[in-house]
Design brief:
- The protein is mostly helical.
- It is about 50% helix and about 0% strand.
- The chain has a single domain, classed as Alpha/alpha barrel (Glycosyltransferase), CATH 1.50.10.
- It has a two-stranded antiparallel sheet.
- A hairpin with a 2-residue loop joins strand 1 and strand 2.
- Helix 4 packs antiparallel against helix 5 and helix 9 packs parallel to helix 11.
- The chain is globular.
Length: about 325
Amino acid sequence: MTKVQEFLSAALVDGWCPYSFSTGQSASTEATAWAIIALVGNRRLSVRRALEFLIANQNTDGGWATGPGLGRSDWTSGPATLALRLALHYQPQLIAPRIMEQSLARAFNYLLTLRVEFLPPVGRLLLLFLKGPAGMHYARGWPWNPDCYNWVEPTSYCLMALKLPTLNNEELGLSAIFHANKYLLEHACRGGGWNHGCFASLGAFYPPYMTTTAEALLALTDIAAESRVQAALNYLNTAENPGFSAMSLAWSTLALNAYDHDCSKQLEALLRLQNNDGSFGLNYFVTALSLLAINTTNGINPLRPKRESASHKH
């Protein structure tokens, strides 16, 4: 673990990570956010400069673009918000709480604005007329980019940002969680698990994927007893494929650990894929996920929910 930890820490020397290992790459919001998440659970490791980078590059609407100066805020706002929330919980001394709270308030506002509202006003009025108030509670999650359809991965990221380390108990947050939970449950694949969101078409049922299943499971820990959540856990526990990637194995390890399932098989397979320099895969994002997965052996998994605390509402 020390080797991958040192590799990732060295990448943050300027306060940010690029996405890939190639030289000359620009800063990546996604990779930087996940590097923070991977390192923040170890209270001995400072991620101050990376947090300062995220806060400095937050757009005026409260979200983040894929990288600094790259335009509109998008799905990377989910991981960035999650990174700030976990940092405030695990290392609150790094950044003035007032600054973190202000940044998070703006981030939450953006996430709630980004949600997909794919029915036009006339359609919503029709639902209200036909089904009453219950008709307004149709399933909806988050898109990759504004004004697009909802998908499993961005919905999972944003749900994690609203639920970890503790559930966001504000009224609008709870409403968003309810509708996004419903979206994921309604888009589960036959037999358990998730793919990117289209589970059936023209009478054919599509299979689940390890990565998206694990992501959705990490987003649904608050309804662990739900039958579709349990079916997904069974799929993840029994999936067999010698070609699994470091990314899918890291996500699977984290998800199984979050539900107190044995993840030793997945972790052992992941460790066999480690590069000689300590990294995993071809980029810093996968390396950060892999470090998170390895840290589960030390009882550290920031993606496991904590009990609600009055001192940590965001």
